[in-house]
């Protein structure tokens, strides 16, 4: 079944405009969701906003957003005021510039969304913009209001559509230098690097989604299935981490044993 669009608007490049529809490229709807339960009654526990001073519940219509400029002193904003801040980018993706497709590091990528023409009339203009980016190997930079906040976004061609990536802001990406400045002081021996390369090659596999399955989710489903059949407390799984007798690791010996293990696994396959 086709995914319903959660956003509809316009894609614009100079004087070329077309209607488009967008939907998140990823979803967590299949993940297990847990409720908080009162152990004594078996009833669900609900949360509510209360006044921090009086302790009394606050109705939805009495709640507003506030920016704290000093202790207990807030600048208040109505929802309509926040929505009016960037009206142009609420319904129009206006491509402002283009960048080489691989020039933006992966760390700046935030959330992906699929973008497609919203109707037959828009397909030609959409295809012209998409194929121009594909031939020049570029991505389009624009601004767009999503999730009640304006984002810088990157548009890149994908199949017959595009992917719209929200990009992280400059102050959201930390400088790696203070964290990595001392990590390059140790140098690996050439023999260890050669053996590690062989170990990497032994584990090289073609990409497929099953490589990033969620074993915790699978185990939780097993526990739920078992408890549905017969109520029984599941024993916690023992850690698979190898026992460490001290803090010293013989890298060369560990590599030899790892390679031997990989060879045995390859023979069994």
UniProtKB/TrEMBL annotation:
Recorded name of the encoding gene: ku
Biological classification of the source: Bacteria, Pseudomonadati, Pseudomonadota, Alphaproteobacteria, Hyphomicrobiales
Listed PANTHER family: NON-HOMOLOGOUS END JOINING PROTEIN KU
CDD domains registered for this protein in UniProt: KU_like
Region of interest (Disordered), residue spans: 221-249
Organism: Rhizobium rhizophilum
Job description of the protein: With LigD forms a non-homologous end joining (NHEJ) DNA repair enzyme, which repairs dsDNA breaks with reduced fidelity. Binds linear dsDNA with 5'- and 3'- overhangs but not closed circular dsDNA nor ssDNA. Recruits and stimulates the ligase activity of LigD.
Biased composition (Basic and acidic residues): 238-249
This protein's record includes keyword Nuclease: no
Protein name: Non-homologous end joining protein Ku
């Amino acid at each position: 079944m086709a995914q319903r669009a959660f956003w509809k608007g316009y894609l614009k490049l100079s004087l070329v405009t077309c209607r488009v529809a967008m939907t998140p490229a990823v979803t967590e709807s299949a993940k297990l969701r847990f409720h908080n339960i009162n152990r004594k009654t078996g009833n669900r526990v609900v949360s509510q906003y209360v006044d921090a001073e009086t302790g009394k519940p606050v109705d939805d219509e009495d709640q507003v957003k506030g920016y704290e400029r000093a202790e207990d002193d807030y600048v208040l904003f109505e929802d309509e005021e926040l929505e009016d801040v960037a009206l142009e980018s609420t319904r129009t993706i206006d491509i402002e510039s283009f960048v080489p497709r691989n020039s933006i590091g992966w760390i700046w990528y935030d959330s992906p969304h699929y973008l497609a023409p919203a109707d037959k009339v828009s397909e030609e203009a959409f295809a012209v913009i998409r194929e121009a980016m594909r031939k020049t190997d570029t991505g389009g930079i624009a601004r767009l209001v999503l999730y009640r906040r304006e984002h810088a976004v990157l548009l890149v061609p994908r199949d017959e559509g595009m992917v719209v990536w929200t990009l992280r802001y400059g102050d959201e990406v930390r400088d790696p230098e203070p964290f990595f400045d001392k990590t390059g002081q140790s140098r690996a021996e050439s023999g260890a690097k050669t053996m590690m390369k062989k170990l990497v090659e032994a584990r090289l596999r073609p990409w497929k989604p099953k490589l990033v399955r969620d074993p915790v989710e699978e185990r939780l489903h097993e526990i739920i299935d078992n408890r549905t059949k017969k109520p029984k407390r599941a024993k916690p799984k023992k850690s698979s981490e190898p026992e460490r007798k001290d803090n010293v690791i013989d890298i060369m010996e560990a590599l030899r044993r790892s390679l031997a293990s990989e060879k045995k696994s390859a023979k069994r396959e």
